[in-house]
Every structure is written in structure tokens, then in C-alpha cells.
Amino acid sequence: MGDLLAGLTEAFRMIVTLDAELIEITLRSLRVTLTALAISCLVGLPLGGWLAVRRFRLRRAVIATMNALIGLPPVVVGLVVYLFLSRSGPLGVLGLLFTPTAMIVAQIIIITPLVASIAYQAMRDLWSDYHDLLISMNATRGQRIVTLLIDARRALLTAALAGFGRAIGEVGAIMIVGGNIDGATRVLTTAIALETGRGDFALALGLGIILIALALIVSWGSHWAMRTERQGTW
Amino acid sequence: MVAALPLTLTGATLRRQGKTLIGPVDLTLGRIGVTVVIGPNGSGKTSLLRMMHGLQRTADGHVGWSVADAIARERQAYVFQRPIALRRSVLANLMFPLRLRGASRAQAEARARAIADRFDLTAMLAQPAPSLSGGEMQRLALARALITEPEILFADEPCAALDGRATRQIEALLAGTAAAGTRLVMATHDMGQARRLASDVIFLLHGRIHETGPAKTFFAAPATPEAEAFLNGDIVE
Amino acid sequence: MIRALLMSALFLSAGSASAETMKLAVTTSFENSGLADILLPQIAADTGIDIELIVVGTGQALRLGEAGDVDAVLVHSKAAEEAFVAAGNATHRREIMYNDFVIIGPGDDPAGIAQAGDATEALARIATAQAPFVSRGDDSGTHKAELALWNAAGIPTEGDWYRPVGAGMGAALNTAVGMGAYVLSDRASWLKFGNKDGMSILFEGDPAMFNQYAYLPVNPARYDHIKAGAAARLEDWLVSERAEVLINGYRVADEQLFTFNAER
Questions:
Q1: Which of B2, C53, C141, C246 lies 20 to 30 A from B55 at CA?
Q2: Which family does the entry's similarity section mention (chain A) (predicted)?
Q3: Is B100 in contact with A129 (Cβ distance < 8 A)?
């Protein structure tokens, strides 16, 4: 109980005093995760739409694989990305290991299946409504996917938020590929792991509370933006 | 512009899982008129319309237009029994078919506003389409189908779920559309509506054309006992 | 949109390029001691080298060096380090300083190790009492040192009382505190540890428990990008008198943690 209270106090203190290090790692967390999320959405949302619209022989296999990849253990992703980006690995010449870019790459791999899968489910349901109309109107495959992407935007926001939540709270993979370097690759989750290891539970918990608050703010903010963009029941 | 009509069906057959739903059907649809498809439930009215429109692929036979299929597809429109509302505003729904064909936003919007006026939709242009009532939604579906000025319009029981007032409104719009030169093919189970709108009739039974002819002759003196029984309100199997 | 994303990705990957940077893999125990916070700013001021610390276990630190992902390593496991040099992964091994290991346990000391004469006897008492003992179990330098002590005492590390947790020093200490178990820790990690909760140092001082830190610059002949110049300058600084004063003078809870012992 004392630790919980101390954590709240510490979180409050860091926010009120605008702790410089806290602001730095919070911004880095946001930059890494939002970049990864943007790329994941760029790939995952159209992929989900394509899978909803297209019928082909291996479709079920692809969807099953995608759903299985949601459960990829981040540590394994981190290890594989590490092995690729390591100086002795196939992409070593890029010199990306222990940079925010490496963390973005790992997060993209972790959340793209999740984003694509939720997007697919939403657009599959919408497609069963729209199927006859769009075929009748002679929409091309690209137009069908774009229509689904636009009209399922509420559900796609949920997909993006799920991806954001998983990425912002992820620690196993980015610890390995980022290295938790102070001032370069330290983000909220790796800082929490570090402070827990040091036994400074109050600081760790304080950072944790800030992480949760961040996730809540992003979620509320995007829902608010979607609702005020246009009034409606859909 | 070369007309896509007449539409010619030769031995057109529709099957699902080995069961024949429609056909073989031989039929020619000329350039003008209102063809009303009637028949008992399950006789295949919807399937026939979908097959002509190309929503369902024929298992045998041929559905042939007077122009290439790709061009013909651009010249037709379809109104579904249960109207499909895009999850957008009424205005965006109306603009949608034009935008698919590459019209600019401004152009599409101007035409959408014009047709909304004709279809009494102006007051609800900004509303989300899914929030419309049944009658409003069907007016929207009709306007959205006609905004591309199709040569032929298929309408599958467009008044099935509507009250009297909305039905009268839709019928008036359909009659006006036909009068303006759009070929109309409509399925209905409402014999009053069939009599009011039809210039010729297709009587379907068990997926085949049992009897067809000009509306006047058909309603005055049906040639087959089944058609006569159906018009009398008897159960036809 | 896409271009903006790519731009931001490039921006993120750029990092700080103003000063010369080098990557140094260090052990958790070193980082947890807090000494790095004293040394790094001084190193930056004296040499212009910005050190990026990668904090991992000794095993992983050596793997990073072998793969060329860091420019040098600072670890504490003599046998592994010598093998590392022998394999050609580092040019040489330079001893810098040492701290010592201590045995932590619950305040009431159920196995009575506080009265033990040496480390062997202390471990024997724990084993005899079947008192719970938490082991790092992660192949780290501390873990290897612990195994060497058990080995020297001739006690097999098996049974319900012996609990390898496969985690870093902090996590192992948290576990030990949670179950009231004995645990071997480096003194620095323990003194800086914030969650002591009734546990304390029960046994210390046996020279067998000294913990030598050595600096190993990664062999630049292996990889083109290794910053051998910076690594050499860092080594010169680490064995300098300035470093000696800072290292010997570093205190936590009024205790000296590290003893400088580099040969110049």
C-alpha cells in the first residue's frame, strides 16, 4: 500500500515539476510508437480491406496465419530483429541496432498483425453489407477497399488504438533492439523495467502511472476527434 | 452513343450447389417499357433480376447486351429490396456512384443536389444515410441508382417494406423515370402495383418463364391456368 | 503523408551526432551501482566521448562485443573474458577495479551465516539449514561467481531450497526479499537497492568474493566500424589518476564500493 501511494506521489511530482528526463522519454515513447503505428496502419488497414474483399485459394490460411502472429512473443521478435540488425547480421551495414529506428521496426512487426486482423474483421462485416451494392455499381477492387476503409473508420480507429496500446506498453522487444540507452533509446517501459530492477518501486510505478495516463489521453483524444468530426450514428 | 439494349437471354441458367434456380430462360428486352416480373414466392424473381444485372454468373447459356459487357455494366443500375445505405451522409451517398466513375467532387455534388431536389431529399442531405426512414432510404437508393442516368434500371420489390404513402411516392418516381426513357425491370408481389406500372409482364414459375406478354393482354386474359390462378389470389405450386 | 513518415523515421534514426559517441556494454551490477552517473559526465568533459551504455548481463555483453554491436565491454567474469580475448574478439583485457560480493539474508538469519569464518562455511550453513537461496541463474558474471563459490565449497546446487530465477540482479533481489531468502549480490547493487524490507548483509569480506571488473576493447580488425580510437582513449581515461580518485571516492551510504586496481 505504501509503495502504491509513493508511486502516485512520485507520478504527481514528476508531472507537476515537468521533470526534464520524464518529458524526454515520454516524447520518445510517443515518437517511436506513433511512427510504428502509422506504418502499421499504412500496411495493416489496406491489407485487412484486401482480405475482406478478395477471395482466393489461400485466403483462410493467410487469415489464420495473421491471427496467429498476433500472439508473437515480443521477446522473440526483438531477438530476431536484433539478429538481423546486428553488425554481424544480414542488415548490419545499416548500423540501425540500438537506435529508435530499430525499436520502430520491432514494434511494426509486433502490431501489424493485430491492426490488420481487427481491421479485417470490421471490414469483412461491412463488406457483407456493401457487397451487392458495390458490385452492382461496378466498383474496382481498389475502390471497394477504399470505400470500406472510409466507411469502417470508427472500427479502424479501434484497430489503431489496439495497436497503439500494445506498442506503447511493449518492453521485451525494444529492450533488446533499443538497448535502453539513456538519452538515446530509453522509453517509458524500459525505464520502468530499469527502475523496478533497481528496486525503486515508487519511481517505476510513477512512470507506469504516466504510461497509463498517456494511453488514456490518446484513446480519449482520438475518440473525441472522431465524434466531433461529423455527428452521426455510424 | 450505341445503346446497350436490347438485352438477350439465351438458355440462361442459374444454379447453386447443383440445384437449378433459374432457367433455362430465353428472353429479349427491348429499349422501352416497364417489365414487371411476378410469380409466387421462391419462383426466382430476385435471381432472374440479379442474373440479368450480372450479379450472379450464369451456369449455362448467355446474357448478352448489344455492346461489350464492360460498357453495358456502366449503363445499368439496381435497386435492392432491402436498400443498402453507405455509412455516410445522404449527400455522400448520392455522390458515390459519380465519384466511382471519376467525377470531380464539385461536379458530383452539383448533380447530387439536383437529383436530391427531384427526389425530395434536399432537407436531409447532411443526415447520415443509416438514420433515414424506410421510405426515405428507398428514395435515396432510387436517386443514387439513377444519378448515373442508366439506360436500364432493375428494381427488386422496391416497395416491399413501405407504407402506403411511401409506396405511392416511389411508384410515382418510378413511373416518371420510365416516362423519361429509362428501361425498367421490376419484381413485385403487389398485383395492384404491377397493373399500375407494367407495360409487359413476365410470370415466373419454378425458375422459368411460364407466361409473358403485354400487360393489358396478360391481366385481361392470362393464357395459362397457373397465371390465372395466381392473379385470382390462389396458391400456385 | 508517406513522405512525412519516412522523414520522421529518418529523423528518429539520426540520433545525436555532435560529439563522438561509442557504445559500451556494461553489466547490470555496474549500472545499478550508480558509478556510471559519476564517471560518464567526467569522461565526456575530459575526452569528448559520449558513451552510450548498453546494460545487459555479462553473457549478453560479450555476445554484443563478439557481434560487433558495441565498441567495448566492461564486465566481471575472468574466465569468460580470457576466452573472449583468446577467440580474437578483443585485442586485450585490462583490469580496472574491483568491488565485492556479499551474502544478503533475512534479519533473523535462520542459517546463522553471520558467524561463519569464510564463504565456504557460510554457504555450507545455508545448505545444511535448507534455507531458501535465490540464484541469478542467468549466466551473468555474478551467477558465475556464485557457482564458483558453491563449487569451491563442494556443495551441489540442487534441492527445493535452491531457487535459480534466471533474472538480473535487481529482479533477483526483489525475489529474495519477497521470499525471505538468502542471495549473493554485488555490494553496489545491494546498497543502491531501494526495496530492502528487513534484509541485510549477513556475510562479507572473504577475498574469494572479490569481483574484478575488466575493460575489453572489441577487436577493430573484426569490423570496420569499431571505434578503436575512442575505445583506446576511454581506456586511457579509465586507468588515469582522475578515474582512480573518482572510483575510490565513490560512496553509497558512507561505504566505498569500488577499489581502483588498474596497472599503469
A1: B2
A2: Belongs to the binding-protein-dependent transport system permease family.
A3: no
